[in-house]
Backbone:
């Protein structure tokens, strides 16, 4: 089955760009997501990309997809302390009833 | 537009007991999925309900069961609780059809089993 892997920690300074990376194993994954989780909270859908796209930009967020290498990245421009959280990469197939398969999450720490 | 809500926020149960968690889907959404998130882990898929029937299931034993009601709200029931069932339980709602890939999560229910 699908396996999603992420690096566990990333530390950046306020104002810098952050890049969080993710790899997945199932080439039939059709939708790829980034979710944000703040302490004690649920998951916030940040953005998603279809497998037939290479890039998607949404304000400070840029998602890059390399389908050949099954590699997904999330770039946060001008990172702020409020961006400190756990970021989850997730993949989903196209069939009804299929689940989101999540990585273990990357903890982003932003220092001022 | 009303978001996904879950109740209760927290609860503590004893091993062997049974628990029911509740979820109200986002307005306009008819599909509900349940996930278990253990401490330090990513969420794991339990099952999904669509049109009041189970539409997909992850690798969880039968003591995890669910219901969906005509108003699309849902319950997760866990029987014979074990210590390893301690986790954050997340509910996600989505539309069926062309927008089914957009899943929105509730704030979760923190279950502690002692």
Residues:
């Amino acid at each position: 089955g699908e396996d999603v892997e992420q690096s566990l920690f990333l530390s950046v300074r306020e104002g810098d760009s952050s890049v969080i990376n993710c790899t997945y194993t199932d080439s039939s994954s059709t939708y790829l997501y980034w979710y944000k989780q703040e302490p004690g909270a649920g998951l916030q859908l940040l953005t998603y990309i279809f497998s037939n796209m290479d890039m998607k930009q949404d304000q400070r967020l840029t998602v890059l997809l390399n389908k050949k290498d099954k590699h997904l990245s999330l770039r946060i421009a001008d990172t702020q302390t409020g961006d400190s959280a756990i970021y989850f990469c997730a993949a989903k197939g196209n069939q009804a009833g299929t689940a989101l398969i999540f990585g273990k999450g990357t903890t982003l720490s932003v220092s001022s | 537009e009303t978001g996904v809500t879950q109740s209760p926020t927290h609860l503590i149960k004893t091993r062997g007991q049974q628990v029911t968690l509740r979820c109200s889907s986002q307005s306009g959404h008819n599909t509900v999925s349940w996930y278990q998130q253990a401490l330090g882990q990513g969420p794991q898929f339990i099952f999904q309900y669509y049109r009041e029937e189970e539409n997909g299931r992850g690798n969880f034993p039968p003591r995890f069961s669910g219901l969906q009601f005509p108003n699309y709200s849902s319950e997760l029931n866990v029987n014979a609780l074990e210590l390893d069932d301690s986790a954050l339980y997340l509910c996600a709602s989505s539309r069926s059809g062309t927008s089914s890939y957009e899943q929105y999560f509730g704030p979760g229910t923190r279950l502690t089993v002692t």
Summary: Chain B is about 0% helix and 50% strand. Chain B touches chain A at residues 4, 6, 33, 35, 40-45, 48, 50, 55-56, 58, 90, 92, 96, 100-108 (CB under 8 Å). The two ends of chain B are 38 Å apart (CA to CA).
